[in-house]
Amino acid sequence: xxxxxxxxxxxxxxxxxxxxxxxxxxxxxLLGAVKTGNFCVDCETFQAxxxxxxxxxxxxxxxxxxxxxxxxxxxxxxxxxxxxxALFDGLMQKLKHYYQQRKGSKIESxxxxxxxxxxxxxxGSVSQASNFKGILVEIEYCPCVVAGDxxxxxxxxxxxxxxxxxxxxxxSFLKTKTDMIYTPADTMSQYLxxxxxxxxxxxxxxxxxx
Amino acid sequence: MQKEExxxxxxxxxxxxxxxxxxxxxxSFLYKLENEFATLNWPTMLDNFALISSNMNSLSRVLRxxxxxxxxxxxxxxxxxxxxxDQELAxxxxxxxxxxxxxVVPDYLRTKPETEVxxxxxxxxxxxxxxxxxxxxxxxxxxxxxxxxxxxxxxSYREEWDNDSKQKTQQPQTSSQSETNTLIAAISMGxxxxxxxxxxxxxxxxxxxxxxxxxxxMPVGKMQSSVKTTIRAGSAxxxxxxx
Amino acid sequence: xxxxxxxxLKNNIAPQQEYLLQGSxxxxxxxxxxxxxxxxxxxxxxxxETFSDHEMVFVLRGAxxxxxxxxxxxxxxxxxxxxxxxxxxxxxxxEIGDKNRHTLVRACFDVACSNNVVKFLxxxxxxxxHEYCVKGYFFHKGRMKVTVSKIYRMVQTGTPDGNTQEAMTxxxxxxxxxxxxxxxxxxxxxxxxxxxxxxxxxQLEKVDQKRLSVQ
Lengths: 210, 243, 215
Known about the structure:
The structure holds 3 protein chains of 3 kinds. By secondary structure, chain B is mainly α. Chain B contains 10 helices and no strands. Among the domains of chain B are: about 1-75, Up-down Bundle (Methane Monooxygenase Hydroxylase, Chain G, domain 1), CATH 1.20.58.1710; about 75-130, no CATH class. In chain B, about 65% of the residues lie in helices and about 0% in strands. The radius of gyration of chain B is 43 Å and the shape is elongated. Chain C is an alpha+beta fold. Chain C has a single domain (about 15-200), classed as Hypothetical Protein Pfu-838710-001, CATH 2.40.320.10. Chain C has helices at about 5-10, 30-40, 115-125, 185-195, 210-215; strands spanning about 15-25, 50-60, 70-75, 85-90, 105-115, 125-140, 145-155, 165, 170-180. Chain C starts with a helix and ends with a helix.
């Protein structure tokens, strides 16, 4: 378990998502990384109804990661992230009179997982309700647990792999946590940030198309 | 006359048979006591006693029966006393009596107590008659008092022993139902765990929502309703203060 | 990807039913019970394990009467105090059942979680309802769990220490429970047999909590 950066990889005009994914995977394989199976990060959104006393209507995002199969990450729109046993999903069901699952809100990033020395790469295609949304690439540097200590190394790796344009974007979330111990919850917060961006983009697109 | 004799004869046979039954029961019991004392258990002992007792009962029933002529009306007197051994007699008594002589006859055919005993009885009779009825009454009362005292003492001791043995088999009270209920109500519903300052609010504000609920006969409702009211008090501005 | 929970539900391996028997023992005789439990349960050669927990009960309440309040019980270990482990427990309404079933049965979710759970629940709209401390011993016999514990009232909210607690009663609560996947009714029989062995020291029974609330 180390420090993780999740990058948004744009799909250029005239190319399909699959083509871009293939391109990145080829790049990674050329480095000499070894395929180590598939991975999946999924996210479901629960919205508070109007019926809770003395509380603004909150949103709870429930994330799972194949990297932590027994855990469940519940992230509020306030940013608070609760890490719990996977059984937490059962607790959410008990709250169904207060927090309703948004229909079609389930969004996930799925793809190939690679290992390369101290690094782990994950190339994920993001889809919501089986619509392709975009590409997220995750780079993990295992020997380190403080983000600030390996930021430059990560940047270098991402530049060589994904190009400097992509490497420049750094999660606003990660910037605030440069000298704290990095945890899987931080990875999930990054994913949530990207997922939310995808959803926003979709709604903007829909608004423009209208 | 002949009829009476016949009756006597047949009833004698009856009596002999019954007596023989008693004798056999006694003999077998004695045999068991002597030879099987190691394996003999209490129930078989009781069985034997019961057998003997029932034989005695049937004998006395025969004696009291209508068919038996009044035996006391018959006299028996020895015709012949002989110092010689009588084989026939020995056989009849199964070897217990060998001769019918002047020594044994008074013992076997006795109808009155021995003279010494008779004297003693007479003495007691005269002594009893010499006491005045007042005195006698007093002594009677005394005796009754003493007996009832002793009876009381025995009864109180018995009670004590009974209690003792009960306490030995019955553990002292190790759990209390009311405490169990208090504890379970506390952990399941928070009864008695909410802070003092919140209690008055709770009793003053029986919310209308709760009253509606408790009228519903649904099984879950009842429990829920009590949880609800107490919660309303708790949530009225006492969020858990974060450290 | 199917998450672990739904897989667990589908294969009926997720523990979510609690079978429960309850009773209490007067403090004076508690050691006798502990001694007996030590003999009956696993690890008889070891000293009984102790625990010391702080439970905070949170409630999510709706504005309308249709919404039944939901209670989450948050527990943390006070032992050791510097590294508490936290978990959320959800308990459903307990079913008394008929005479053929020897124990209470209720839905039960035990979910271990990170230490920011109080903040998280508060932000979700949960409010603290009450809290208490529970200290005592626990034993295992197979998958049966026995706890003998005292319940302490908090004099002040917040961090519990020795000065801010008072014992509720002169008795310890005794609970025999198994958390198992749904439909494993035979466990209730095992529990009944075990409870028989604690008589007459403790009467472990299925206590109707609804009845207690009426009193």
